[in-house]
Amino acid sequence: MNAQDFDRWVQASLNAFEAALDDLVPAGAPAGLGEAMRYAVLGGGKRLRPLLVLASCAAVGGDSFAAMRAACSVELIHAYSLVHDDMPCMDDDVMRRGKPTTHVAFGEAQAMLAGDAMQALAFEVLTPDTGIAPALQARLCSLLARSAGHDGMAGGQAIDLASIGKQLDEVTLRDMHRRKTGVLLQASVMMGAACGPASTQATQALADYGAALGLAFQVVDDILDVTQDSTVLGKTAGKDQDANKPTYVSVLGLEAARALAQQLRAEAKAALAATGLADVSHLSLLADSVVERDN
Amino acid sequence: MNAQDFDRWVQASLNAFEAALDDLVPAGAPAGLGEAMRYAVLGGGKRLRPLLVLASCAAVGGDSFAAMRAACSVELIHAYSLVHDDMPCMDDDVMRRGKPTTHVAFGEAQAMLAGDAMQALAFEVLTPDTGIAPALQARLCSLLARSAGHDGMAGGQAIDLASIGKQLDEVTLRDMHRRKTGVLLQASVMMGAACGPASTQATQALADYGAALGLAFQVVDDILDVTQDSTVLGKTAGKDQDANKPTYVSVLGLEAARALAQQLRAEAKAALAATGLADVSHLSLLADSVVERDN
Q: Which among A142, A151, A158 is the nearest to B127, CB-wise?
């Protein structure tokens, strides 16, 4: 697959994804709640997690309706976590994806509720009355719940919160980021794979791919935080440094962090080769785009 | 069933429930998160929702392992909503179940994360690797997600938020409370019923029972808010009045609110009679305890 074919696939996938998400996030939820939810999740973001779900499903020849629902659910979890993260009691950030954060636009109470409702909606979209086999619904809910909760994203946030102003070694930093970002990225890959008949070997190798890619994503995030300005990032640059948060750059230095990102990309591609699947080109090119991105 | 038998059933159910919940809420979650989650959900509260799940499951002769998981999941949702509700940007309350609220004890950021992680955990406990048939897992997740989200609890909170200082008519007040409290109480009944082989007739009648009981619960809450002091309630009394929130008492007056509670109890019992189930005594006595409670 060449770069042009990949770009075409990304564009077509994103179009279908945005339409599906727009359809699923209720405009009519009461008292401004729907408006806040839609503001927080529609029309912005790189949509890396949904692309991982769809690419992984395609690699195993899976059910595309279920995968699209799964793509929407992981993005809802990701978007809700950003809404809560940005609030004054957490990172206190006012800018996200180039526009005011949800609590700035709608107030703190509505932002907290919107985040809460988005998490519930993530599980609602995985459990429609028809269209997804019940056993697959259960599997997708299981993967999502475990990646979002205490042992995944929320647990990583708690470590993050406790680490401000502290020195962390690379092992602790890696554990924090594995939970905070990596586990949901990996779950995206696993949820896509669950939509099709993947062998045990392929499933394990895809888990390895997801783990390497998840960590690479965070390493690159830390690099961009110090090398890019806010306009390019669409969020406040230099934030982690200012908050005295440990990052891969602060722990390893910029050059070693760049080398680590390259090493993780190689690990991700080696894992793809070990899947035994015929066409993993989308997943491979997504790993490239994670490491080579500039925002 | 006499009152003594019912009390014995309640006590045995609560003992088993507390042990199950204690087992499921992780002490080991990182950086104090597990401690905050356990503080928020263990060792307190009336546990009405879990009792409804267990009583409903018993009425249909359902799977008690699945029902216990469902009981834990609804209580996790209820408890997380209290944690977020009590925060300064919402109701700003400092006392709950006779002790400091979670954000007072652990800080706002940790309280928000604990609530978020508790919602994820609710879906995690419904989707174990073994012990609950996948189709039942999917059904339970579906019921829980819909009752917790924009069309249920979170939507009701948003209406509540927007209603402060406003006059509401009884229809709007009823819609707010149906979403905010009623839908999760009703879902507790439905999740219990889903654990067994309930007929369409029984399922519909149990839904009616849950709707009447859910509304009765809120009417009684509003009555107690003005007739009891904080020590008996274990939370700040007179709060709604002080916040200028519309309640059943402010809209209907105290006597009419009391009459409505009695009417809803009668509706709940009529619905139970329409289930066609052999033994609905636990559900019937739970309706009594909701209307007759003093805290």
A: A142
